[in-house]
Amino acid sequence: MTHQRAKAVHHTSAAVAIGSEPDVLNEVSDPQIALAIWRRSLPHMLSVCAAASCQDNLHWKGTVHSGDPASQTDCPAALHLLLDDLLQSAEPMRRSCGAEALHVRLETITDDGCRRFHVDQVHTRFVTTYHGAGTEWVSPDWAEACALDPLDYGGPRHTLHQGDVAVFKGAKSGAETLILHRSPPVKSLSEARFVGVADLAW
């Protein structure tokens, strides 16, 4: 099958695809693409819901099968709007990889537990920040320097905006190129983060 490029896609490198439409996430099915990013403006209601969830320090994790709405899970009602958005946004990743379900986490982050640049030990991971500072990632051109000092790397990096949707290939994908990334340190900031994460489940 011929791989078709999503509309309005540009590449910061041969391994990263960025676009303003959700179909850019289908790019992750290209063996050469290690990261696909959908640049989007977060709808106001999601922003309000995420800020309130962050303030209340809400967390939820569970496995959701294709087609199941948030209302059919044991997710707290206060998080249903965010969970439904995550499931809809992660659908291209699930579909392109042929997974039956998603392992999902919605969580408030108040510490620096993931401040080290790393590659996830999964096949493919969906990440979006609903509130607070976004995930940081390093271009393949700087990966070697970053890998030498993943905790204190001070070189060039990119930052996902609040509301952006990113799909990272992980160590179990078999991809030759992978993107080092991290959660930004938040202990020194006055604002926590509220993040949505989804991994493939077969």
How would you concisely characterize the structure shown here?
The chain has 202 residues and is α+β, with helices and mostly antiparallel strands.
Q: Assess the beta-strand content as a share of residues.
A: 25-35%
Give the structural class.
alpha+beta
Report the sheet with the most strands, covering strand number, pairing sense and barrel closure.
Answer: 8 strands, mixed
Mean pLDDT: 91
Radius of gyration: 16 Å
Count the helices. How many? 3
The side-by-side strand order for the widest beta sheet comes to: 1-2-3-9-6-11-5-4
Task: Calculate the terminal CA-CA distance, rounded to whole Å.
Answer: 23 Å
Percent helix range: 10-25%
SSE ordering: EEEHEHEEEHEEEE
The outline comes out as globular
The assembly state of the depicted protein chains is single chain
DSSP summary, beta strand count? 11
> Residue ranges: pLDDT <50 for 5 or more in a row?
1-7
What layout of secondary structure does this protein have?
Elements: E1 9-13, E2 16-19, E3 35-38, H1 44-55, E4 59-65, H2 80-97, E5 101-109, E6 124-131, E7 136-137, H3 143-148, E8 158-159, E9 165-169, E10 181-182, E11 193-201
Parallel strand pairs: 2-3
Antiparallel strand pairs: 1-2, 3-9, 4-5, 5-11, 6-9, 6-11, 7-8, 7-10
Textual characterization of the structure:
By secondary structure, the chain is α+β, with helices and mostly antiparallel strands. Helix content is 18%, strand content 28%. It is built from three helices and eleven strands. It has helices spanning 44-55, 80-97, 143-148, and strands at 9-13, 16-19, 35-38, 59-65, 101-109, 124-131, 136-137, 158-159, 165-169, 181-182, 193-201. The protein has an eight-stranded mixed sheet with strand order 1-2-3-9-6-11-5-4. The two termini are 23 Å apart.
